[in-house]
Amino acid sequence: MSIKIIIIGAQGMLGQELAKVFQKDEPLLWDLPQLDITDKDRVEQKIFKERPDIIINAAAYNDVDGAEKNETLANKINGYAVGYLAKAINVVRGILVHYSTDYVFKGDNKEGYIEENQPNPQSAYARSKYLGEQELQKNIKKFYLIRLSRLFGQAAISQNAKKSFIDQMLELAKTKSEINVVNEELSCPTYALDLANQTKLIIKNQRPFGIYHVTNSGACTWYDLAKEIFTIKKIDVKLNPVSSDFFPRLAKRPKYSVLINTKLPALRSWQEALREYLIE
């Protein structure tokens, strides 16, 4: 039996991988300008017309520091718009898949966070993502909320797309022989392709609705990640580990935001996923 799927944010880093992974289902691929998810009436109009079985929402405002100056916009995209999607697809009795972030947690637990831990967001971006989680759970029961961290993969082609840390490092190495990298903020890198595949398994296997943590296995600091990038690519550059205070940033980041997955088979290590992305 065929199912009707809509992927929103289809030109983003994750959206492009979702489009490939769900290709056989012939999903509708929406991004701007097909749908502005902050327009409640338009959301209802388009979803009531298409009546999808599943919406996968990979659209997000993900400028962490920018959100400190644009919290209203971040709340619209990451927060209230999720509620609009949830309400609309609930009417047509579909399922909503939505993505959130490790940043919803305070980041003071060195053991990491399981799916049921209570969020305590510390920045405007994190608050906007937590608002989206609340809007989702308030407006629909048939949902998959998937938290991820440090997404990397093929660059997005959407408007105002942000480069991943990996691509930023590779760019810097072209012009610098020495790079300072924060050796703090322990978290788990997530390969967009692996996340898309795991999303498909959650849906196809009809896993119980609720919250899931999906990252590649293992945790690292930004410095550890940079070191691995340059080792894999055999790039000779001097890396200097620095504290987070070295780079003044508007938004507060969690120091320990390892997402512990208690509900799914573990994904491959972040090192293996990174190698595949950089080499193959």
Strand order of the largest sheet: 2-1-3-4-5-9
Mean pLDDT: 97
Q: Can you identify the CATH superfamily?
A: NAD(P)-binding Rossmann-like Domain
Name the structural class: alpha/beta
β-strand amount: 15-25%
Number of domains: 1
Model regions low in confidence, pLDDT < 50 over at least 5 residues = none
CATH level 1 class label: Alpha Beta
Second CATH tier, the architecture: 3-Layer(aba) Sandwich
CATH topology: Rossmann fold
| Tally of separate helices | 8
Largest sheet: 6 strands, parallel
Order of helices and strands: EHEHEHEHEEHEEHEHEH
- Quantity of strands, as a count: 10
The dominant shape is globular
User: Cα distance, first to last residue?
Assistant: 35 Å
Portion in helices = 25-40%
Gyration radius, rounded: 18 Å
Task: Explain what the structure shows.
Helix 2 (40-50) packs parallel to helix 3 (71-91) and helix 3 packs parallel to helix 4. This protein has 280 residues and is an alpha/beta fold. The longest helix is centred in the first third of the chain and has 21 residues, at 71-91. It has eight helices and ten strands. The protein has helices at residues 13-21, 40-50, 71-91, 124-139, 165-175, 192-204, 222-232, 270-279, and strands at 5-8, 28-30, 54-57, 95-101, 143-148, 151-152, 178-182, 190-191, 210-213, 238-242. The chain has one domain: Rossmann fold. Helices cover 36% and strands 15% of the residues. The protein has a six-stranded parallel sheet, sandwiched between helices. A two-stranded parallel ribbon has the order 6-8. Strands 7-10 form a two-stranded parallel sheet. The model has no long low-confidence stretch (mean pLDDT 97).
